[in-house]
Amino acid sequence: MISESVLNFGYTLLDKVTGFSPLAVYSTYTSVVRQGLVPDFVLRLAIRALCRQRLREIDYGSFEANHAAKMQWIAKSRARETIADLTEKANEQHYEVPSCLGHHSRRIAALLILNMLQVSTDFILSCLGPCAKYSACLYPTGKETLEEAEVLMMEMYCEKAKLRDGQYVLDLGCGWGSLSLYLAQKYPRSSIIGLSNSSTQKLYIDAQAKKRGLNNIKIVTADVNIIDFVDCEQFDRILSIEVFLFSSMFEHMKNYDMLLRRISTWLKPSQYKGEDEDPDPSLLFVHIFCHRNMPYNFEEEDGWMAQMFFSGGTMPSHDLFLYYQTDLTLLSSSYLSGTHYSRTLEHWLQRQDANAGRGLKELEEDAEKKGKKGEGAKAFYRFRVFYMACSELFAYDGGQEWGVGHYVFKRKD
């Protein structure tokens, strides 16, 4: 059993040197973490303590009080005047960075900006699997390789969304195109539209599609607050898959009613009228991370994680979509243990460590080009802490507190 004093030491250390708590400030980083000298076991103990703290913060003492807090959160979300918050901030943190288009033809990924440092694309790609899927993968036995887990999760999307060749499909919040490219290759007679709010992502995906000889994919760049597909044919399927923890449309949503109302107009209306039920209605499939009970927002005063990675982000509760069915009907929902996410993150961490020499060199060279000598090593170790923090969060209590939600909706006609 780990003593309370060890836990307190780990908590205090992480608080002081990483800013990963509501009480810390990002500028308090010290050379200890910058040089990667804090043992992983200490960081992990501290992260677990912070997970317990978060659970205390969102527990209002009784089912009655928790439900009232959830209803208040929902009421506030419905009062929002915009669909998503801080899309520009999210871009600064994750998207709008130069991409190396000449290498890694099979790999795509998002970048993070840490302390205003644009991190090397090659570094991020070296952490990911061959599909470069920057989101939770699927480990049904727990023994899968990262490559196997990437494909298994995308195949699960295809099954749950009832995809087939010849459909008109929208990848809503397509990130760096892992799913869009996968679907374009799997379903050659389908037309795949990817929506991103990043011009960098569009350039990268276009280059990948050209290399793979795919001509059935198109990437559209637009702000979700204002986009409308008035000039497009309505879609047979719409999918929104979170890109790791950041770029999914739904993780940055603040007004679900407004978003789902807009999406409902993008889905094809049913051809069946009256009492006849459409055997193949147009569908929306959503993959998001979630807490099992309570929704909450990431506030910048929450510390380093919120400031650097989740500005404007939301942790929805698994049941949240039950309360947003004005324009779409929820047909099914399922919960995947957070252990799938945790294993994905541990694989990324292992790959980062395995490529540490090259990764550190790439980050340092990238930092020097930008006049930020020494920042590369800091970014390298912050990524390690980030992967560990997210892994511990989703592994908490065997993946039963935080995990992945899958949802299938149909349009109301």
TrEMBL record:
InterPro entries: SAM-dependent_MTases_sf
Entry coiled-coil feature ranges: none
Family indicated by similarity: Belongs to the CFA/CMAS family.
Protein name: Methyltransferase domain-containing protein
